[in-house]
Amino acid sequence: MCARIAVDVDDTLYAFGDAVREEFFRMAVERDDKSILKGAYAPFTEWRSLSDSLEGDVVYEAILRVHDKTTKQTPFNGAAETIWKLVDSGHEIVYITSRLEKYHEDTLEWLHAWDFPYAVDESLMCVQGSKIPHIRDCKYLIDDRPETVIDFVTDYVWQNWHGSEIQPENERKAFGLWFPYNQALTDVKNVYLAPNWYGIDYYLNRKGLITV
To answer: Which residues neighbour 42 within 8 Å (Cβ) at sequence distance 6 or greater?
Structure first.
């Protein structure tokens, strides 16, 4: 059965975390401030709370620097190929990211340059805050962020649409890359994490989303 699938960008389609760590080193050199290296060496288990070890504006600047260099990023091996398999299996793709709206065109250009399917204006959403209200019509999600993944598979609005006794065929499922900061998600029902995109491809096949 064909479905609408939401796909994240940062740390889902390319190594966003690695790029941000590189920016911390550049900023430390530019400002001659070794304290900024706390961000570069922060354990991945703390990756989603970097502002605890650095001033928030420093973290935010590093993130924006990476987004400014969107067109220079290289996607993960297998990412575009797997998403094409989903499209060839009849599914619709929508890309959703927490980036600022000013990065919409650069992100779209990057998706198109690397031959990701559905790389058109209306297929990309840059949203602030929760992604859930923007992907309520999606049955599947590919994302790394724990909060987003859990909110997606347990969304009460989706469940209400399909009745309180939701049937297995209507349950939402989420897929993503495994990172130390989201490893606990492997214990959550309908969440499937893999160390690379070939692993995501494997789970998508096992769950019947890829049929070609």
So the answer is: 50, 53
